[in-house]
Every structure is written in C-alpha cells, then in structure tokens.
Design goal:
By secondary structure, the protein is mainly α. The chain is 55% helix and 7% strand. Strand 4 and strand 5 form a beta hairpin. Pfam families: BTAD.
Length: 288
C-alpha cells in the first residue's frame, strides 16, 4: 500500500489511561492499552449493541431483537439481565473510578444506557475524522482532507465487532462497509487530484481486490494507471472488469467506465488534468 497513504497518523488519541472501546475488529475494552476480558459472546454482543446506541436508552425488548432477532430463546429476558449484570461487573473491575467518570451501564426510563465518552470509542472517532475529511474535500482543501481520511482509515482494523453473531451487528456491518468504501473512494480521488497517481495505484489494486464489482474503483485505477504511463494495464483493468460484470451480473460496464476506456484508447491528453473530486462550488453573490 502507498507510503503516502500510510504516512499520516493524525493527532494523539485520548488519554491512554482511560478505558477505551474498540469496535472495529474484535470487540475490545482497553485499560492502559491492555484488553479486558468481556465475558461470553452474547454478553459482548450486548455491549456492542449498547455502544452503537450510545446516549440512547434501549429497552429489554429492543435488546432481545438486537441479539436474537425474530426467534429469541424463551428465557431471553433473563439472559439480558444476566449479561447486563456481567457487563456491570466488567466495567466496575476495569475502571474503578471514584470520580464517576468511568463507563457505566445505567438503567433509566425502562431501558439500559451505556454512559461513556464518545471520544473513547474508535467508531465515533472514525465518523468524526471521515466527516471532517469529506467537508474539507468539498471546500477545496485536499491535503487536509486526505490527512483526516488517512487518520480515519487506520482505525478500521477489521469488520465491526468481528466474530460476534447478532442481527443488529450484521445490519450494522453492511452499513459500515459501504461507508468505508465511499470514504476510501474519496481518499483515492484526492490522491489523484494531488498528482500522486503512482502512490494511489497499489492502494486501488488492494481496494478493488476487496470490492471487485466497484465500478468507481475500477475507473480510478484506470485513470491512475494511464497517468503513470501504464495505459496497457489500464485497458487490461477494463477488460477484466467487463468480463466479471458480464459473467456475474449479465450486463456491461456503465457509461462512465466505457467513456474512460474510449478516451484511454484515444490517448486523450485531457485525462492528465481531469479532476476526480468535483471542484468546490463558488457561492453566488447575494441577490443572484
């Protein structure tokens, strides 16, 4: 993967002495950097569900649906109470904080709420960094945007709550995977617009391997290869993508990819300056 895409590590994280939750990859609670035992898998899934609904109260029936879906066990409410009790013990042992600033699992308004700081959860740190990067890209600050998206990217160490089985987690993984793909497409677009197409190529190959039907990634990789004087490889990427979508979907590539293919065949010189990220919109003067 590109050295440029890996080089930025962003600002320092929160105080390492405070308990931190990691949702990307295996679910973890870290205290002084060391993982804490979280109990059985369904208890961990309950913790993940509460982390996804931070600041919100979740009733027992909602938690049962989140953990088991349409076919819960007959004693599901007892299990939820058991797991809540277990999690409270885990949190109390992991962060005995007389000031009350440690994470707490509260019962209020007929439901459960996990009380902790969003800055101590990697998922919300990702959202903040990615949203800021997207806004900077829209405002014409590509270098800063790329740095924020890089800082977001390195937080994603695997699927959300990897290895845990619960309907709520399966749904959330689909959303998070699509969100990450969109953010990383923007990251590659910025790399091209910054003139670092050679650095973007290995990253795009990596992403396309993970998302072989992504037409946008194929488009970006073809453009990067053309700009790096590797036009034959760009055409090969198109041919491979076309074979794949014909075989798997029974259709041809979309218009944007076909147009880029024709322009590469024609050695269109304007491709060297084609913007991947749309130019920032200039506000109209008042009254227009």
């Amino acid at each position: 993967m590109s050295g440029v895409l890996l080089r930025h590590r962003g600002p320092a994280g929160p105080d390492p002495g405070r308990p931190r939750f990691v949702l990307y990859g295996p679910l973890r609670l870290l205290v002084d950097g060391a993982p804490v035992q979280l109990g059985p898998p369904k208890q961990q899934a309950l913790l993940a569900a509460l982390l996804l609904r931070l600041d919100l109260t979740t009733g027992p029936d909602q938690l049962i649906d989140a953990l088991w879906g349409a076919q819960p066990p007959a004693y599901a409410k007892n299990l939820v109470q058991k797991y809540v009790s277990g999690l409270r013990g885990v949190l109390a042992a992991a962060a005995p904080d007389p000031s009350g600033d440690g994470p707490r699992l509260l019962f209020e308004g007929g439901g459960y709420r996990l009380d902790t700081d969003k800055d101590l959860i990697d998922l919300y740190a990702y959202e903040r960094l990615a949203a800021t990067g997207t806004a900077l890209a829209s405002n014409g600050s590509p270098e800063e945007a790329a740095q924020h998206l890089d800082s977001a990217r390195i937080l994603v160490t695997g699927p959300l709550a990897e290895g845990l089985d619960a309907p709520v987690l399966e749904r959330e993984r689909v959303y998070r995977d699509e969100r990450f793909l969109a953010d990383m497409e923007l990251r590659a677009e910025l790399e091209l617009d910054l003139g670092r197409h050679r650095n973007a190529i290995p990253y795009l190959y990596f992403m396309l391997h993970k998302h072989p039907l992504s037409e946008r990634l194929s488009w970006l990789l073809m453009l990067a290869l053309f700009r790096a004087d590797r036009g034959a490889e760009a055409l090969a990427v198109y041919d491979e993508y076309r074979r794949r979508v014909v075989a798997e979907l029974g259709t041809d590539p979309g218009r944007a990819l076909r147009t880029l293919h024709h322009r590469i065949l024609a050695q269109d010189p304007e491709l060297t300056s084609l913007r991947a990220v749309p130019a920032p919109r200039t506000p109209l003067p008042p009254g227009e």
